[in-house]
Amino acid sequence: MRFLADENFDGRILRGIRRENARVDIVRVQDTIIYQANDPTVLEWAAQENRILLTHDISTMPDYAYERVRAGKSMPGVLLVHRDAAIGEVIEDLLVVIGASEPDEYENQVVHLPLSSNVPRPGQ
Fold first, then answer.
1. pTM across the whole model
2. How confident is the model at residue 116 (pLDDT cuts 50, 70, 90)?
């Protein structure tokens, strides 16, 4: 499974993942030619490189991701990590994603982390 960490993605999460799984393939946007690019460009690069995007950008990134899907463009997936989520919980969930799923399960999907945020609550 290959990831692209958005420009403002929390480095503590990346370090925690790498501490637990040194083989994980994560590239940071700031280490690529698309540093400081707009969201559509980041999604295009992620698609070209077949990388699932890790982002905290809940305000615009999901809309651009779904726009790509509606346009029939490839979208390896977006893991949308809520900024107020506990870092340890996010690290654990990402390790579960890495260890217990396949990349194609995220194709054309925007998945919210922590995973418990995807569980319907009573009354929802």
1. 0.91
2. confident
